[in-house]
Structure to design on (624 residues):
DNA sequence: TTGTAGGCGTTATCAT
DNA sequence: ATGATAACGCCTACAA
């Protein structure tokens, strides 16, 4: 028992014994066993994190990165599950995650079925939903409103005098929310429903190139395109250049995500910025606070910001 | 015990008892406890995966994604640790990972100190190194030679008649290996040492724009640039266009990674392709085979392929 | 096919 | 500050 304390809780032991234990441990190559410890203590210091995918262009990846890093800094490990954009075997997946007895669960950009929500609630574990705002949370939530972001994009483009505004959206819940906000705001401003080109995630530059082509085919006079991600917006800019369309004079292009190339594009990309570093860090911090028994805010809206550059 | 079998190993139990157990289990909301199971069985069905970072542009992320997905399909969970590009606290990090008693460890794009290698070997766990070829492996390895890739790029550009060839490289071990192979091959071909512009990872488009500027300042007559990632190459292309330099006529641009935008750039990007899907899947498959006691190949060179497009 | 016994390596608890 | 004891929940091994 003293040896156990010397390793897990050195402050409860004399310096002399601690050294003795440490010497013996390193002599025999002892490595602590968290599995046994977790069994008795009922704390695993493991966080389960469910994401749609860790594909390279994913717009929420920076938040996941920051979150993971923060958890590691605070002494937790992260178990990552990719859920895909479908919902098959969601139940089973949650079951096997819960069987690991994580101390908490983080859901990122993931809509969850009612049955799954019930299962998560029944588990009694702290649940953090990250990267979205738009529902009654299961437990804790750190995110921002995708609808509001879409609405802000519409208002911004309208404010720049654009009247034939189109969108390239993705068939994925968060993108759909941005689209809904975008459409609603345009309607409120008295504009006709925008032309929308839908693409399947994960979004790529090619979607932007091809999407602009389709949009121009349907209406050669569109004067603005709001894109569901910056990578798509970059595709729209390149396609415009190929077609001799001047950005922003003839076509305003607006992105979402403020990815690290946005400022370096020509023309520099006007886009919507979300503070992913802080978002991910706050999600992890609030989770750890909850685990330490001091829950503060349960819901935190991180907001967003339109970054005005040259493209719109 | 029968209940345990009904859940973990249903084939050892009558259908009738299995149903009875399942009914009871769902009535009380029973969720299996892998922690307890792992303690006795000494199998955790957990794989620890150490990566430098999951930043969005990381060129190895598709391999990690495929690997994770394969592990999940085969019934394993993945614990992800970001190590950063530094080496601080590497020992401690490995220690806490081993304390979780994972069934195996995957190191991705990660050089490991001698002490850490010893610790990993001493653990007796199967270790998979992924995404590189160039050393005596700790245990298993699935990757390709970055030196050979760099050499192939040099030979390709030379074969296209380019003689004043530069490179934009990153201060990161794999990029350094590509650089070394690139430099060696140019020397073998009788060319002078290339001008090299070094940038800090993670690489961004801006690195390409700025890097080309620096290279042209040092030598206005360079006729080719090999870039350490496609995103950097895209920056070089955009910067060339801004400066009125024609690609590929005046400047050949070559990337690395064949990211999903490479084909959609104008001019389409000539680059080096690695089959990340298969690489990640094979790494996971070989690991699981090792865990099942049937080790086949321990080292697997996945090779690479130059994708000739318009930019070089 | 089902049941019994015991232990995996730690930590909570109580005692010294 | 240290020690003794039991228990966490499952699975291995063996028996019926």
């Amino acid at each position: 028992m003293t040896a156990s304390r010397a390793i897990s809780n050195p402050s409860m032991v004399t310096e002399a014994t601690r050294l003795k234990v440490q010497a013996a441990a390193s002599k025999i190559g002892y490595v602590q066993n968290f599995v046994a410890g977790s069994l008795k203590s009922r704390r695993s210091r493991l966080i389960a994190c469910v994401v749609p995918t860790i594909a390279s262009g994913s717009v929420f990846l920076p938040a996941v990165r920051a979150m993971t890093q923060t958890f590691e800094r605070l002494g937790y490990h992260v178990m990552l599950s990719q859920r895909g954009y479908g919902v098959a075997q969601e139940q089973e997946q949650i079951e096997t995650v819960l069987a690991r007895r994580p101390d908490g669960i983080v859901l990122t950009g993931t809509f969850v079925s009612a049955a799954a929500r019930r299962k998560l609630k029944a588990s009694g574990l702290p649940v953090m939903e990250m990267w979205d705002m738009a529902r009654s949370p299961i437990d804790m939530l750190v995110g921002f409103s995708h609808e509001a972001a879409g609405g802000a994009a519409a208002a911004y483009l309208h404010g720049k005098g654009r009247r034939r505004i189109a969108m390239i959206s993705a068939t994925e819940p968060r993108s759909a929310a941005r689209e809904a906000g975008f459409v609603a705001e345009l309607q409120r401003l008295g504009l006709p429903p925008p032309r929308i080109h839908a693409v399947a995630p994960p979004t790529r530059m090619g979607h932007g190139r091809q999407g602009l082509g389709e949009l121009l085919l349907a209406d050669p006079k569109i004067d603005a395109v709001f894109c569901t991600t910056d990578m798509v917006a970059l595709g729209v800019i390149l396609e415009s250049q190929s077609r001799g369309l001047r950005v922003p004079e003839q076509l305003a292009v607006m992105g979402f995500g403020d990815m690290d190339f946005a400022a370096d594009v020509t023309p520099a990309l006007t886009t919507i910025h979300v503070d992913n570093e802080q978002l991910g860090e706050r999600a992890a911090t609030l989770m750890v606070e909850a685990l330490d028994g001091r829950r503060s805010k349960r819901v935190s809206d991180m907001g967003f910001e339109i970054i005005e550059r040259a493209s719109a």
